[in-house]
Amino acid sequence: MYTPERDRTMKEFMEAAIDEARLGLQEGGIPIGSVLVRDGKIIGRGHNRRIQNGDPLAHAEIECMRNAGRIGSYANTILFSTLIPCYLCSGAIVQFGIEKVIVGESRTFKGDIEFLKDHWVDVEDWDMKECVELMTEFIKNNPTLWNEDIGKL
Predict the structure, then answer these.
(1) Pairing relationship of beta strands 41-47 and 33-38 according to DSSP bridges
(2) Helix, strand, coil proportions of the chain in percent (round to 5)?
(3) pTM for the whole thing?
(4) What is d(CA 92, CA 85) in angstroms, rounded to the nearest whole number?
(5) To 10 degrees, what angle do helices 129-141 and 4-26 make?
(6) I need a labelling partner for 66 at 20 to 30 A (CA). Which of 38, 47, 78, 143 fits?
């Protein structure tokens, strides 16, 4: 049910994901951030650390789930991500039964929203200017790193 308070809280969660993306950029990585929420509280957060850790699987959503730890069921969780999840992360979302994903944007990378929806994941794309600009600037300045991240080298 929509309420102004819920809207404010949802924006705060996306801001936390954006903070994670900026932290990743400050570390020399790719500016993608994610938070996992249950019952109105952040239970996990992460950012893409593929470059920093030399780990091709250290995507923001995966790091976020790792940092949440063993939480048992992922039922009733919402994943906020600054960018539409890739196939790797979408697979993890489906595998663990995350029911809702809210993304900051899907312009700079298309991902596969239909895959998520076909597996009963509710997806909202907020198409946020701030998220688009963050990724557009990174891709323009770091095309090789970006192409490596999305497997296009």
Answers:
(1) antiparallel
(2) 45, 15, 35
(3) 0.93
(4) 10
(5) 10
(6) 143
Instruction: Estimate the crossing angle of helix 4-26 against helix 60-68, to 10 degrees.
Output: 110
Residue 34 tokens read as 């994610």
Phi first, then psi, for residue 102 (nearest 5°) are -115, 125
Angstrom distance (rounded) from CA 4 to CA 10? 10
- Do 90 and 110 meet the contact criterion of CB atoms below 8 Å apart? no
Q: What is the pLDDT of residues 30-72, one digit of tens each?
A: 999 999 999 999 999 999 999 999 999 999 999 999 999 999 9
The whole-angstrom separation of Cα 65 and Cα 48 is 12
Tens of pLDDT along 25-37? Answer: 999 999 999 999 9
Mean pLDDT for the chain overall: 93
Give me 51's structure tokens. 């470059």
Q: Which residues are catalytic?
A: 61
Nearest to 68 by CA among 99, 98, 101, 102: 98
Tell me the C-alpha distance between 66 and 77, whole Å. 15
For 132, phi and psi rounded to 5 degrees? -60, -45
SS3 assignment for 123-139: EEECCCHHHHHHHHHHH
